[in-house]
Amino acid sequence: MNPFDLAMEMEKEGEKYYQHLAEKTASAGMKNILGQLALDEAKHFQVLQKLKASARAELESTPVLARAKTIFQQLREEKDWDSLPAGQADLYRKARDIETRSFRFYMEKARESGDPRVQKMFFLIAEEEKRHEFLLEHLLQFISRPQTWLENAEFNHLDQY
Q: Each residue of 14-52: pLDDT tens digit?
């Protein structure tokens, strides 16, 4: 399977996985974050389709981290800890691990590519996958200990990425 087909398959699976996670949570804020992650994966898929067809493709950076920080702040104010999917931590770990593998895949394929257009796009997608991985790591910490995580200084790490 060529890198484009493999990448498009990964992105489609990622989109479906985030949609599945969103369906399994009662938290509107978490649904919002997971929905944005699903949209990002769909966006990657579309960019890869265009790139494979030798069409002009651009990847606009997503504000998923800024939106997530706002949602975390809202959750802190609402204190609706019971709606958080703490029992689904393994599912979020799997999502984080998928993002880690995606990041590595895109970095490897970017380095292997002889086409500067493809190389640039793979590096851009890799950066976005790294942001997703970062966000998922924080989601895991958050659902595991929401009250202390939100009061802790590490909540501000979302600004640094």
A: 999 999 999 988 888 889 999 999 999 999 999 999 988
Structure tokens at 118: 């493809």
Two tokens at 35? 């929905």
Task: Compute how many other C-beta atoms are within 10 angstroms of the C-beta atom of residue 142.
Answer: 24
Is-contact 14 98, C-beta < 8 A? Answer: yes
Q: What CATH number has the domain spanning 3-53+62-160?
A: 1.20.1260.10
Residue with tokens 């706002």: 70
59, 47 in Cβ contact below 8 A? yes
And the tokens for 103? 């990041």
For residue 146, name the pLDDT band (cuts at 50, 70, 90). low
Write b or e for each residue in 78-115: b if 16 or more Cβ atoms lie within 10 A of its Cβ, otherwise e: eeeeeebbeebeeebeebbebbbebbebbbebbeebee
CA-based Rg of the chain, rounded to a whole angstrom?
16
> What is the residue whose two structure tokens read 């002009």?
56
Which of 60, 34, 53, 63 is CA-nearest to residue 125? 60
